Amino acid sequence: MKKLSTNIGFLSLLALLIFSLSSCNRGKNAAIAEDLPPGTHAVSIIEVIQTSNYTYLQVFENNVKYWIAVASREAKAGDVLYFTDGMEMKNFHSKELDRTFPSIYFVQDPSETLDRSDKSMKSSGKVQMKKFNDISVEPATGGISIADLYKNKDNYDEKPAKIRGIVVKFNKNIMGKNWVHIQDGTSADDNFDLTITTMDEVSEGNIVTFEGTIRLNKDFGAGYAYDVIMEDAKATEVKMEDDTSM
């Protein structure tokens, strides 16, 4: 009888300990997720993988684990990040990691603090691209430069255009399209990068001439909106960056 009482006491103590730990975890998650602005995510970081351009983070939100990618930043397990809707990429392959993520969200506005002002946590959808100052690409024959496009964007709305630049970013198969960022070394105000959607595949570092339709104020949802974009483009000429025959 004494042995049975001891076992019952041990099981009771173990149950109390498990309950206490569960309560602590519930309290932490509730504190993170409490009273968030609409559309805002609050996640706890579980795992961090650093690469040259991105920080890959496995995160925990509402009892679900998933992966996000943000521009390179310091992060560690246990940190909390806030962000609005990201763009999901399925079967994304990182060449640097030689790893394929079945699903990953690319987040443009991660923050360690939650700003509750009216302008807080609203994603503009405009990817903040790095400006490459050493780029200089001549416009294609019959084409325009990025500076020309932005200076006279109203004249090009819903019209075909030809533009040449160096591919500085390529994302494959997002919403059924490939997404390309090009730069040609020209700019108008702070506009030096053009987003292009295409079914063609190109590589970063290629000099490509694209022909497509210019559209203004294009909103794809999930916070991804563009003041100027070229859609349904064809890559009519592709050369390597070191090819000077152009």
Please give a structural write-up.
This protein is α+β, with helices and mostly antiparallel strands. Among the domains are: 36-106, OB fold (Dihydrolipoamide Acetyltransferase, E2P); 146-240, OB fold (Dihydrolipoamide Acetyltransferase, E2P). Helix content is 17%, strand content 42%. The chain has three helices and eleven strands; from the N terminus they run H-E-E-E-E-E-E-H-H-E-E-E-E-E. The chain has helices at 2-33, 146-151, 153-156; strands at 41-50, 54-61, 64-71, 80-83, 87-94, 99-106, 159-174, 177-183, 194-198, 206-219, 225-240. The protein has a six-stranded mixed β-sheet with strand order 4-1-2-3-6-5, with helices on one face.
Annotation keywords:
3 helices; single chain; elongated; five-stranded mixed β-barrel; six-stranded mixed sheet; disordered N terminus; 246 residues; OB fold (Dihydrolipoamide Acetyltransferase, E2P); alpha+beta; disordered C terminus
Hey, roughly how much beta strand do the residues contain? 35-45%
Our measurement of the CA-to-CA distance between the termini, rounded to an integer number of angstroms, reads: 93 Å
| CATH top-level class of the domain at 146-240 | Mainly Beta
Radius of gyration: 24 Å
Structural class: alpha+beta
Please tell me the CATH architecture of the domain at 146-240 by its name.
Beta Barrel
Total number of helical segments?
Answer: 3
Q: Helix content range of the residues, please?
A: 10-25%
What best-fitting shape do the alpha-carbon axes yield?
elongated
Question: For the residues shown, what is the average pLDDT?
Answer: 80
The largest sheet has its strands arranged as 4-1-2-3-6-5
CATH topology of the domain at 146-240: OB fold (Dihydrolipoamide Acetyltransferase, E2P)
Note the run of SSEs as H and E.
HEEEEEEHHEEEEE
Largest sheet: 6 strands, mixed
Q: Give the full name of the CATH homologous superfamily of the domain at 146-240.
A: Nucleic acid-binding proteins
> Got a strand count?
11
| Poorly predicted residue ranges | 1-6, 13-31, 118-126, 242-246
